[in-house]
Amino acid sequence: MAFVVAIDGPAGTGKGTITKIISKRMNLLNIDTGAMYRSVTLACIRNNVAPNEEKKIEKILDNIDIELKNMDGEQKIFLNGEDVSKEIRTPEVDEQVAKFAALKSVRDKLTPIQRKIGENNNIIMEGRDIGTVVFPNADVKIFLDCSLEERAKRRYLQNLKKGINESYDEVLKAIIERHKLETERKIAPFIKANDAITIDSTNLTIQETVNEVEKIIKSKMS
């Protein structure tokens, strides 16, 4: 196993942004596990398959191909050869992803893929269960936290930049509902690893958060 950095935390804490910056600054391969779960969700939505139709979901999983590629300095995700980097970030996928990610069949499909990537690469991986399930022996475990209101504000502004027309109240409601689903699910519930270091980014800028994360990683490398 190579050097592994696990970044966990709830939606809207800036995990994706921070991970991308750190990966470039410290030459670590960036793996966005959330994008993988979103791709499965998108595939199910396109096939009109609901979260409770497990047989149909298993059939989709048997024929699904998910690839993460770095293109022009940006990570793109491909679903069966199609670039779905934008499609997986829509409110429709936001609303459904926690339900599909809670399914054992989905996690059984994606967790081994995520582990395999970490076998031969120095990686930084972000998600909900990286330090607890995917890489419980990760060299560095960081739990990135933030207040609900700040998380909703960040996601709302992020959506505006992407042209997604959703009100702040709608975003806040979606984040609260998703958090409830993720923490109460039976399979790999969203919890903080006992040995993870918490960083509360509520009152921190992106750069300040990056500096904190980088300091922790460097202390573990020495």
What do you see in this structure?
- This protein has 222 residues and is an alpha/beta fold.
- It has one domain: 3-Layer(aba) Sandwich (Rossmann fold).
- The protein has helices at 15-26, 33-46, 54-62, 91-101, 104-117, 130-134, 148-161, 168-184, 206-221, and strands at 4-8, 29-32, 66-71, 74-79, 82-83, 123-127, 140-145, 197-200.
- Strands 2-6-1-7-8 form a five-stranded parallel beta sheet. The chain has a three-stranded antiparallel beta sheet with strand order 3-4-5, covered by helices on one side.
- A hairpin with a 2-residue loop joins β3 and β4 (74-79).
Key phrases:
9 helices; globular; Rossmann fold; alpha/beta; 222 residues
The number of helical segments is: 9
- The oligomeric state of the chains shown is single chain
**H/E series, N to C?**
EHEHHEEEHHEHEHHEH
CATH domain fold name = Rossmann fold
Number of domains as seen in the coordinates: 1
The helix content, as a percent range, equals: 40-55%
Strand content: 15-25%
Short description:
With 222 residues, the protein is α/β, with parallel strands linked by helices.
Task: Give a topology summary.
Blueprint: E1 4-8, H1 15-26, E2 29-32, H2 33-46, H3 54-62, E3 66-71, E4 74-79, E5 82-83, H4 91-101, H5 104-117, E6 123-127, H6 130-134, E7 140-145, H7 148-161, H8 168-184, E8 197-200, H9 206-221
Parallel strand pairs: 1-6, 1-7, 2-6, 7-8
Antiparallel strand pairs: 3-4, 4-5
